[in-house]
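Look over this record before class:
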Amino acid sequence: QLQASGGGLVQHGGSLRLSCAASGFTLDYYAIGWFRQAPGKSREGVSVISSSGATTYYADSVKGRFSISRDNAKNTVYLQMSSLKPEDTAIYYCAAGPFEGWDSPYDYWGQGTQVTVSS
């Protein structure tokens, strides 16, 4: 299973680092995506990293502010979020799948972690 953590309440302009840890399987061969869902809105892709870590993707809304990375030795993927805005408020989910991409099938999903950015 996947465990997302690191969410919380932060002020506009602040930073948070989300973690996505796997248990029961290794993340080495999986692309990892971070997605978010705000109240009343559809889920959207935030960032994706390939299994090797060589390729990353970001939604236009977070480019230059968020950074995805992975530490396969720790079986964990991170999402460093900086310059946070109130519109970043959402539940953030991580997911693992065999292919990188926003619409690729993801086999495992974490339970989500709440990020709230106050204005």
Q: What stands out?
A: The first strand starts at residue 2 and ends at 5. Residues 26 and 75 are 6 Å apart (CA to CA).
